[in-house]
Amino acid sequence: MTLKVAIIGRPNVGKSTLFNRLVGRKVAIVHDKPGVTRDRKEASAKLNNLSLKIIDTAGYEYSNEDNLEKRMWLQTQKAIKDADVSLFLFDARDGLQPYDEHLAGLVRQEGKPVVLLANKCEGKLQEDSIHEAYKLGLGEPIPFSAEHGLGLLDLYEALKDIEETIPEENEVDVLDELDDEEFKKKPIQLAIVGRPNVGKSTLVNALLNDERMLTGPEAGVTRDAITSEWKYKGRRINLVDTAGLRRQSRISDSLEKMSAASTKRAAFLAQVVVLVLDADAVLDKQDLTIARQVLDEGRALVIAVNKWDIAKRKETLQRLNDRLQSSLAQADGVPTVTISALKKENLDKLMSAVLKVYDRWNVRIPTAPLNQWFADMIDKYPPPLGKNKRRIKLRYITQAKTRPPAFYIFSSNPEGLPDAYLSYLTNQLRSTFNLGGIPIRITVRKTNNPYADKK
User: Fold this and answer.
1) Is 83 helix (H, G, I), strand (E, B) or coil?
2) I need a labelling partner for 196 at 20 to 30 A (CA). Which of 61, 177, 249, 418 fits?
3) End-to-end CA distance of the chain
């Protein structure tokens, strides 16, 4: 079975460091600044023979008001309820703090198993803090160091004991509803990107039909790329919420630089990227930069114009179309869907566009119709003269790969073929075979002369 494990504690006690240690790679952003983690972040892990689903949570800070700290605690509370066991971290160097004791009281009320970890125990100076931790009422503390991997064997034994108490029926196979054909298909990697405060996390919550992501009026609430496993009409999807991207010149804070790097990494590893725009400020310079980078990396692109319920609709669409045509020629045919994430409007239309563009991204065109199209294009508009004043002869075309579609054109003298002619072929290929919204790669290669080596 897979044991669900939530990592909890106050800010800056080493939760994300432990998360990365257990997962085996740097997935969560780690920074000296307290309160970096805000959303729940999940990943699979192995600890010896234990299969784990690890949940990183925000640092606990008490608040009675409806503010960011209160919403962060509600997300942590959900993680505790969903998990089989919680790892409660406190900083043994600092000793117990009031927030540690307050959080321990809330955790005891949940009635779930807890493993108490005295983190940052690299020496003997922390012994007093370890003994003091008994008053939290969470059992015997384990001396631990997430940074150096000390105490992992003790943690394994504690988790193993808890796993043996959990009935087998608690294990849920998320794939049991899939037929054999669907089972073989890998999940679609779908990233939601855009500038800060355009509604990315609200959109993710609306799609999941769950308050999975932390949202609010504050810009920049999301700081790390958060992946949620999801199924839409039988298709498995890894839905990735990301931090908002600002212009590079405006980013000076090291934490924001790490958030931006996490967003770009998630976008470039995705298969389909949904670029979310604010209906009142569509496709500014930063949006165009994001769109270009997505297409340059070979990802499929869908544009979602959010907050459509309060937009000046006619002016917004006209402005968007003008900007696409004038500034983003490689985005010809990119699906544009107007939505309201807050009111959950047009979400099925958005997902329909995502699935269609994903299928285009994976398309393989049969050789016969591809070369018939190629011959028709050359007849209609022959290639120009090359550098040696001879007509460039393009012999045939073949599709080299998919994801994204890439094509080789073979010619005996390809030197000097202008970019304009390749753009012509790319646009006609996109139009004829319905390849809007995806990048297309065309490379001209020289055919070998079969008589070159003969004397």
Assistant:
1) coil
2) 61
3) 71
| Strand 441-446 relative to strand 406-411, pairing | parallel
Helix (H, G, I), strand (E, B) or coil at 317: helix
**In degrees rounded to 5, what are phi and psi of residue 225?**
-80, 120
| Cα-only R_g, the chain | 27
Q: Could you report the per-residue pLDDT of 85-140, keeping only the tens digit for each?
A: 989 998 888 888 888 888 888 888 887 888 999 888 876 666 777 888 888 888 88
What is the 8-class DSSP label of residue 60?
A: P
Helix then strand then coil, % of the chain, to nearest 5? 40, 20, 40
Structure tokens at 258: 């790490």
Residue 97, helix vs strand vs coil: coil
Do the strands 114-119 and 85-91 form a parallel or antiparallel pair, or are they unpaired?
parallel
User: What is the rounded CA–CA span in Å between residue 41 and residue 241?
Assistant: 10
- C-alpha to C-alpha distance for 272 and 238, rounded to whole angstroms: 11
Does the pLDDT of residue 358 top 90, yes or no? yes
Supply 447's token pair.
Answer: 């055919």
Tokens, residue 264 = 């770009």
435 Cβ contact partners less than 8 Å away, ≥ 6 residues apart: 333, 360, 363, 405, 429
Listed in order, strand segments (DSSP E) in 104-221 are 114-119, 142-143, 188-194
Which residue type is seen at 260? A
Return the DSSP state at 346: S
| pTM to 2 decimal places | 0.60
* CA 201/CA 213 separation, integer angstroms: 6
What residues contact 176, with CB distance under 8 A and at least 6 apart? none
Are 279 and 310 a contacting pair, CB within 8 Å? yes
Q: Rounded to whole angstroms, how far apart are CA atoms 129 and 149?
A: 19
What is the rounded distance in angstroms from the CA atom of residue 16 to the CA atom of residue 444?
A: 48
